[in-house]
Fold this sequence. Notes:
This protein has 339 residues and is α/β, with parallel strands linked by helices. Helix content is 42%, strand content 15%. The chain is built from 14 helices and 12 strands. The chain has helices at 10-13, 17-32, 55-66, 79-83, 89-104, 115-122, 146-155, 177-186, 205-211, 226-235, 250-257, 286-297, 305-314, 317-332; strands at 2-6, 35-37, 47-50, 70-74, 109-112, 129-132, 164-168, 191-195, 218-222, 238-241, 262-265, 281-283. The strands form 2 sheets. It has a 6-stranded parallel β-sheet with strand order 2-1-3-4-5-6, sandwiched between helices. A 6-stranded parallel β-sheet has the order 9-8-7-10-11-12, with helices on both faces. Helix 11 links the parallel strand 10 (238-241) and strand 11. Helix 7 crosses helix 10 (226-235), helix 8 packs across helix 9 (205-211) and helix 11 crosses helix 13 (305-314). The protein is globular and about 60 Å long.
Amino acid sequence: MQVLLYTENEKVVGKSGLGKAIKHQMKALELTGVDYTLDNKSSDYDILHINTYFPASYLMVKKAKRQGKRIVYHAHSTEEDYRNGFILAKQTSKLFKKWLVHCYKMGDIIVTPTEYSKKLLDGYGMGRKIYAISNGIEIKKFKRDKKAGDKFRKTYGFSKNDKVIIGIGLYIERKGIVDFVELAKRMPEYKFIWFGYSPLVAATKNVREAVRTKLDNLTFAGYVEPEMIIGAMSGCDLYLFPTLEETEGIPAIEACACKCKALIRDIPVFDGWLEDGVNIYKAKNLDEFEEKIPKIINGELPDLTDEAYKVAVDRSLEVVGKKLKSVYEEVMNTNSDKK
Length: 339
């Protein structure tokens, strides 16, 4: 059994959460002993595992179907997480959903990262079996590293006494970047630094204004390699994730793996696996974020990082690989005659 992992515009998506998820797939299959190829010109494969929904992806699936290949469609996107993204997203979300359904229905089986995104996709009425499998975490790589933490502080000019709050994500509205900047305005006693980048020309007006905000305690670091994210999570005082919508949220799992104190927005995607006051802290709005941040940083609330680490272990790439292998074995035993 050989799997073709296909990703359209890999250079474009490579620095996003999707790009990270695809790298995780590769590693998960290697750990599980599943033979895979990235050569989209090869016909010597049994299963097409497709991660994107652009036009070339659609044509790739059509070609694979003509050749009698099995299709696993990885649903990384939903209308809900598209809607609060880039400029004009709200106006085009229904059209986007129609296209997603058209693409995803071409799969013999659909895989999506969480039970929440599975529930959304079930509501689309596609008539396909859908499995919730985490994008996973490379737990041997993402672990607390004091030296990397010290390097992070030195690189960005933070002293030992500075209280540092990090955020991660593209420059899009649903990542909560506007609230992140507002909190920096409200809380000048803390240093705020945001990692991640996407072209501002595609961002909504309030995101552009947020990113262009000049504050003494606010830094936009742009895209950095995973090693710096590990350093930031090891050297910061708090990881803040004010996202408004996710299909999973890989950085939250990375924070769990690095035993980094974390505060996330209380939204449905985290229900059932990230629990407020059990393995993480949650806030519903700006005022709650502002109230909880000092309590977490100053140790007024219990340290939950050991419990959070268990969340990461449950989503290790070894576990993910076994689940993907099981899906592949199932799809090989199904009839590939769905239109």
